[in-house]
Amino acid sequence: MNKPTLILLLILTVFGCKKNVERKNIANELRGNTFDMFSIEEKDTLTIAFKDSTYAVFEYNDRELPWRIATFDNNDILVFNNRLIAIKQIADNSFEGLFISEKDYEIKIEKRKVKWSKELLNGTWIEEQHHALFFNDSTEKPPLPPAPPGVSIENFQYPPLYIIDKDSISTKYFYQESKSKIEINNTAEFIRMNLRGEFNKVEEQWVIKNLTDSIMIIDRTLERENEKFSFLKTKEKNIKLIKINR
User: Fold this and answer.
1) Domain interval for residue 15
2) Closest by CA position to 53, among listed 85, 31, 84, 83
3) Origin, by domain of life (predicted)?
4) CA 108 to CA 190: how far, in whole Å?
5) Cα–Cα distance for residue pair 204/23, rounded to 1 Å
Protein backbone atom coordinates (compact mmCIF):
# COMPACT_ATOMS: atom_id res chain seq x y z
CA MET A 1 0.00 0.00 0.00
CA ASN A 2 1.54 3.32 -1.04
CA LYS A 3 1.98 6.24 1.32
CA PRO A 4 -0.83 8.51 -0.02
CA THR A 5 -3.37 5.67 0.22
CA LEU A 6 -2.28 4.74 3.75
CA ILE A 7 -2.46 8.35 4.92
CA LEU A 8 -5.89 8.76 3.35
CA LEU A 9 -7.23 5.69 5.16
CA LEU A 10 -5.88 7.01 8.47
CA ILE A 11 -7.48 10.39 7.87
CA LEU A 12 -10.82 8.81 7.04
CA THR A 13 -10.63 6.75 10.23
CA VAL A 14 -10.06 9.90 12.28
CA PHE A 15 -12.88 11.70 10.49
CA GLY A 16 -15.19 8.77 11.15
CA CYS A 17 -14.42 8.72 14.89
CA LYS A 18 -15.43 12.34 15.42
CA LYS A 19 -18.87 13.31 16.61
CA ASN A 20 -21.44 12.91 13.88
CA VAL A 21 -22.89 16.11 12.43
CA GLU A 22 -25.67 16.56 9.95
CA ARG A 23 -24.34 15.36 6.61
CA LYS A 24 -24.95 17.34 3.48
CA ASN A 25 -24.29 16.41 -0.11
CA ILE A 26 -20.90 18.07 -0.51
CA ALA A 27 -21.00 17.82 -4.30
CA ASN A 28 -24.20 19.89 -4.31
CA GLU A 29 -22.65 22.39 -1.89
CA LEU A 30 -19.66 22.92 -4.20
CA ARG A 31 -21.39 22.79 -7.56
CA GLY A 32 -22.19 26.17 -9.10
CA ASN A 33 -20.26 28.14 -6.49
CA THR A 34 -16.87 29.83 -6.11
CA PHE A 35 -14.54 29.19 -3.18
CA ASP A 36 -11.27 30.33 -1.66
CA MET A 37 -9.04 27.33 -0.98
CA PHE A 38 -6.05 28.06 1.22
CA SER A 39 -3.32 26.15 2.99
CA ILE A 40 -3.19 26.70 6.75
CA GLU A 41 0.60 26.35 6.80
CA GLU A 42 1.65 28.27 3.71
CA LYS A 43 -1.18 30.82 3.43
CA ASP A 44 -1.49 30.22 -0.31
CA THR A 45 -4.97 31.00 -1.64
CA LEU A 46 -6.60 29.71 -4.81
CA THR A 47 -9.95 30.88 -6.16
CA ILE A 48 -11.86 27.93 -7.58
CA ALA A 49 -15.21 27.81 -9.36
CA PHE A 50 -16.91 24.40 -9.40
CA LYS A 51 -19.22 23.63 -12.32
CA ASP A 52 -21.18 20.41 -12.86
CA SER A 53 -18.16 18.18 -13.44
CA THR A 54 -15.28 20.59 -14.12
CA TYR A 55 -13.62 23.40 -12.21
CA ALA A 56 -11.53 26.50 -12.94
CA VAL A 57 -8.64 28.03 -11.00
CA PHE A 58 -8.56 31.75 -11.74
CA GLU A 59 -5.03 32.47 -10.51
CA TYR A 60 -3.52 30.07 -13.05
CA ASN A 61 -6.05 30.36 -15.86
CA ASP A 62 -6.80 26.65 -15.45
CA ARG A 63 -10.21 25.71 -16.75
CA GLU A 64 -12.38 22.70 -17.60
CA LEU A 65 -10.47 20.35 -15.29
CA PRO A 66 -12.44 17.37 -13.90
CA TRP A 67 -13.63 17.02 -10.31
CA ARG A 68 -15.92 14.71 -8.36
CA ILE A 69 -16.75 13.61 -4.82
CA ALA A 70 -16.01 10.00 -3.85
CA THR A 71 -17.38 8.46 -0.65
CA PHE A 72 -15.72 5.81 1.52
CA ASP A 73 -17.17 4.53 4.79
CA ASN A 74 -19.43 7.58 5.07
CA ASN A 75 -16.51 9.98 4.47
CA ASP A 76 -16.06 12.31 1.50
CA ILE A 77 -13.03 12.66 -0.77
CA LEU A 78 -12.69 15.53 -3.23
CA VAL A 79 -10.98 14.20 -6.36
CA PHE A 80 -9.87 16.92 -8.72
CA ASN A 81 -7.43 16.55 -11.59
CA ASN A 82 -6.17 13.27 -10.04
CA ARG A 83 -5.50 14.90 -6.66
CA LEU A 84 -7.15 13.85 -3.40
CA ILE A 85 -8.54 15.90 -0.53
CA ALA A 86 -10.22 14.24 2.45
CA ILE A 87 -12.94 16.83 3.06
CA LYS A 88 -15.71 17.58 5.55
CA GLN A 89 -18.14 20.45 5.98
CA ILE A 90 -17.75 22.39 9.24
CA ALA A 91 -20.29 25.19 8.64
CA ASP A 92 -22.80 26.29 6.02
CA ASN A 93 -20.13 27.87 3.80
CA SER A 94 -16.92 26.32 5.15
CA PHE A 95 -15.01 23.08 4.68
CA GLU A 96 -11.74 21.70 5.96
CA GLY A 97 -9.64 18.76 4.93
CA LEU A 98 -6.25 17.31 4.10
CA PHE A 99 -4.60 17.60 0.70
CA ILE A 100 -2.80 14.29 0.04
CA SER A 101 0.54 14.65 -1.79
CA GLU A 102 4.25 14.09 -1.20
CA LYS A 103 3.84 16.70 1.52
CA ASP A 104 0.38 16.79 3.08
CA TYR A 105 -1.39 20.10 3.65
CA GLU A 106 -4.28 21.01 5.90
CA ILE A 107 -6.63 23.21 3.95
CA LYS A 108 -9.75 25.29 4.39
CA ILE A 109 -12.33 26.03 1.72
CA GLU A 110 -14.53 29.11 2.16
CA LYS A 111 -17.45 30.02 -0.08
CA ARG A 112 -17.22 33.46 -1.72
CA LYS A 113 -20.28 35.67 -1.47
CA VAL A 114 -22.02 37.12 -4.52
CA LYS A 115 -20.71 40.67 -4.92
CA TRP A 116 -22.63 42.14 -7.85
CA SER A 117 -25.52 41.43 -10.16
CA LYS A 118 -24.42 40.01 -13.51
CA GLU A 119 -26.95 42.27 -15.23
CA LEU A 120 -24.75 45.28 -14.41
CA LEU A 121 -22.19 43.95 -16.89
CA ASN A 122 -24.49 44.26 -19.89
CA GLY A 123 -23.95 47.32 -22.06
CA THR A 124 -21.26 49.24 -23.93
CA TRP A 125 -18.02 50.09 -22.13
CA ILE A 126 -15.04 52.30 -22.92
CA GLU A 127 -11.73 52.70 -21.12
CA GLU A 128 -11.56 55.88 -19.07
CA GLN A 129 -8.40 57.03 -20.85
CA HIS A 130 -10.38 57.12 -24.13
CA HIS A 131 -13.56 58.64 -22.73
CA ALA A 132 -12.72 62.26 -23.58
CA LEU A 133 -11.61 61.29 -27.07
CA PHE A 134 -14.97 59.64 -27.67
CA PHE A 135 -17.24 62.36 -26.24
CA ASN A 136 -15.38 65.67 -26.30
CA ASP A 137 -15.62 67.31 -29.71
CA SER A 138 -12.87 69.76 -28.76
CA THR A 139 -10.39 66.90 -28.34
CA GLU A 140 -8.28 66.56 -31.46
CA LYS A 141 -9.02 63.32 -33.26
CA PRO A 142 -6.41 61.41 -35.27
CA PRO A 143 -7.02 61.28 -39.02
CA LEU A 144 -9.05 58.32 -40.21
CA PRO A 145 -7.07 55.64 -42.03
CA PRO A 146 -8.43 54.63 -45.42
CA ALA A 147 -11.07 51.93 -45.34
CA PRO A 148 -10.22 48.47 -46.70
CA PRO A 149 -11.80 47.55 -50.05
CA GLY A 150 -15.51 46.89 -49.69
CA VAL A 151 -15.72 48.50 -46.23
CA SER A 152 -17.42 51.83 -45.58
CA ILE A 153 -15.54 54.53 -43.69
CA GLU A 154 -18.65 54.77 -41.50
CA ASN A 155 -17.62 51.44 -39.99
CA PHE A 156 -14.49 52.96 -38.47
CA GLN A 157 -14.40 52.83 -34.66
CA TYR A 158 -11.77 54.37 -32.44
CA PRO A 159 -11.29 54.38 -29.53
CA PRO A 160 -12.20 50.72 -29.00
CA LEU A 161 -15.50 49.77 -27.38
CA TYR A 162 -16.54 46.65 -25.46
CA ILE A 163 -20.11 45.41 -25.80
CA ILE A 164 -21.25 42.81 -23.25
CA ASP A 165 -24.53 41.02 -23.90
CA LYS A 166 -25.32 38.21 -21.45
CA ASP A 167 -23.02 35.36 -22.53
CA SER A 168 -20.86 37.18 -25.10
CA ILE A 169 -18.47 40.10 -25.40
CA SER A 170 -17.43 41.93 -28.56
CA THR A 171 -15.03 44.74 -29.29
CA LYS A 172 -14.92 47.19 -32.18
CA TYR A 173 -11.63 48.82 -33.14
CA PHE A 174 -10.54 50.53 -36.36
CA TYR A 175 -12.39 48.64 -39.12
CA GLN A 176 -12.52 45.36 -37.27
CA GLU A 177 -14.85 43.61 -34.86
CA SER A 178 -14.12 40.60 -32.65
CA LYS A 179 -16.51 38.52 -30.58
CA SER A 180 -16.11 35.86 -27.91
CA LYS A 181 -18.31 33.76 -25.68
CA ILE A 182 -17.80 34.54 -22.00
CA GLU A 183 -18.05 32.59 -18.77
CA ILE A 184 -19.02 34.63 -15.71
CA ASN A 185 -18.66 32.96 -12.33
CA ASN A 186 -21.55 32.99 -9.88
CA THR A 187 -20.18 35.91 -7.82
CA ALA A 188 -19.73 38.06 -10.96
CA GLU A 189 -16.06 38.65 -10.11
CA PHE A 190 -14.37 36.71 -12.92
CA ILE A 191 -15.00 36.71 -16.66
CA ARG A 192 -13.31 34.20 -18.96
CA MET A 193 -13.05 35.02 -22.69
CA ASN A 194 -10.92 34.67 -25.80
CA LEU A 195 -11.28 38.14 -27.30
CA ARG A 196 -8.90 39.36 -29.98
CA GLY A 197 -8.27 43.10 -29.92
CA GLU A 198 -6.06 45.76 -31.43
CA PHE A 199 -2.30 45.27 -31.80
CA ASN A 200 -2.54 41.44 -31.79
CA LYS A 201 -3.61 41.15 -28.19
CA VAL A 202 -5.98 38.46 -26.93
CA GLU A 203 -7.84 39.12 -23.69
CA GLU A 204 -8.37 35.96 -21.62
CA GLN A 205 -9.69 36.98 -18.21
CA TRP A 206 -11.09 39.96 -16.35
CA VAL A 207 -11.07 40.15 -12.57
CA ILE A 208 -13.77 42.62 -11.57
CA LYS A 209 -12.68 44.68 -8.58
CA ASN A 210 -15.58 47.15 -8.59
CA LEU A 211 -18.84 47.31 -10.51
CA THR A 212 -21.70 49.79 -10.56
CA ASP A 213 -24.27 50.79 -13.17
CA SER A 214 -21.76 53.28 -14.62
CA ILE A 215 -18.18 52.12 -13.91
CA MET A 216 -16.19 48.91 -13.80
CA ILE A 217 -12.63 48.46 -12.54
CA ILE A 218 -10.79 45.36 -13.68
CA ASP A 219 -7.48 43.54 -13.74
CA ARG A 220 -7.11 41.77 -17.05
CA THR A 221 -4.94 38.95 -18.32
CA LEU A 222 -3.97 39.01 -21.97
CA GLU A 223 -1.54 37.60 -24.48
CA ARG A 224 0.44 39.74 -26.89
CA GLU A 225 2.29 38.58 -29.96
CA ASN A 226 5.88 39.84 -29.90
CA GLU A 227 8.40 40.39 -32.67
CA LYS A 228 9.61 36.77 -32.39
CA PHE A 229 6.12 35.48 -33.23
CA SER A 230 5.60 34.03 -29.78
CA PHE A 231 3.01 35.05 -27.22
CA LEU A 232 3.70 36.75 -23.91
CA LYS A 233 1.09 36.62 -21.15
CA THR A 234 0.77 39.89 -19.22
CA LYS A 235 -1.53 41.41 -16.62
CA GLU A 236 -2.84 44.96 -16.57
CA LYS A 237 -4.19 46.23 -13.27
CA ASN A 238 -6.87 48.72 -12.26
CA ILE A 239 -8.27 49.41 -15.72
CA LYS A 240 -11.29 51.69 -15.36
CA LEU A 241 -14.16 51.25 -17.80
CA ILE A 242 -17.09 53.64 -18.16
CA LYS A 243 -20.51 52.56 -19.40
CA ILE A 244 -21.84 54.70 -22.22
CA ASN A 245 -25.29 55.14 -23.73
CA ARG A 246 -25.39 54.90 -27.50
Assistant:
1) 3-111
2) 31
3) Bacteria
4) 21
5) 38
